[in-house]
Design a protein that fits this description.
Immunoglobulin-like, 3 helices, single chain, 9 strands, alpha+beta, three-stranded antiparallel beta sheet, elongated
Length: 147
């Protein structure tokens, strides 16, 4: 059996800790890779979607939001999916709702966690290839997500 000396053990441990930290914080600094993967190469409309959230959230552990897609912007085709992102959270993609073509009213409400003050982004993918996008800044006084 081969033994390692103390110096090699400490170097390995510190290197592993740094790599774990970097992997955990990947995308944390406002990176919108998730949003870019949804809207890449598609026509983007900054209208037709209503995101309702408080301007100031007292507690980031439970922030109520609702998203409604206006029927007149969807057309006959319908909505494929609705994505909600918060780029400064440890995991920026919060939720994805998928729909069938038979949905006539597209409105969702939920509560989310926010690590700090940040912009929430809602992106709706339409079946005809277009994308509806909106965002809202929410100021958080007491952060959630373990911060």
């Amino acid at each position: 059996m081969k033994y390692i000396d103390r110096r090699t053990f400490l170097e390995s441990t510190v290197g592993f800790a740094i790599m774990s930290y970097l992997r955990r914080t990947e995308g944390y600094e406002g990176s919108s890779d998730g949003v870019l993967s949804v809207i890449q190469g598609k026509e983007i409309l900054e209208q037709g979607i209503i995101l309702t959230a408080p301007s100031i959230a007292e507690n980031g552990n439970s922030v109520p939001i609702s998203v409604e897609i206006l029927r007149e912007f969807v057309g006959v085709e319908g909505v494929r999916a609705l994505h909600i992102f918060a780029s400064k959270n440890p995991k920026p993609k919060i939720v994805t709702f998928t729909y069938s073509q038979k949905n006539s009213v597209i409105k969702n409400a939920t509560r989310i966690r926010l690590a700090e003050t940040q912009r929430i982004v809602a992106v709706a993918e339409l079946l005809d290839g277009r994308v509806l996008k909106t965002s809202k800044l929410v100021k958080v006084t007491l952060g959630g997500c373990g911060t």
